[in-house]
Design goal:
Elements lengths: L1 E9 L4 E6 L9 E7 L13 E7 L2 E9 L9
Parallel strand pairs: 3-5
Antiparallel strand pairs: 1-2, 1-4, 2-3, 4-5
């Protein structure tokens, strides 16, 4: 499971640019663009949202994306 903050949503490219925390044994903290397995989720995600997703080694796609309720930095 991958926990990240959304930086931007690209509906035309079916992808999210996310700012991810370091995942031990997989990758350092970085901002990257990832395709999503279900483009309909892009209607419910906005910049500033925190999301969780399933990722698989060697696959640059976010699977089972879910917005983490009540944890959006864009809400004040």
């Amino acid at each position: 499971t991958f926990h990240v903050q959304v930086e931007s949503v690209n509906t035309g490219g079916n992808s999210l640019t996310v700012n991810g925390e370091k995942v031990e044994g997989w990758m350092d903290a970085m901002t990257m663009s990832y395709k999503v397995d279900d483009p309909t989720i892009l209607r419910n995600v906005k910049a500033g949202d925190r999301i969780s997703a399933t990722v698989y080694e060697g696959d640059m796609t976010l699977h089972k994306v879910q917005v983490v309720p009540g944890d959006s930095k864009s809400k004040k």
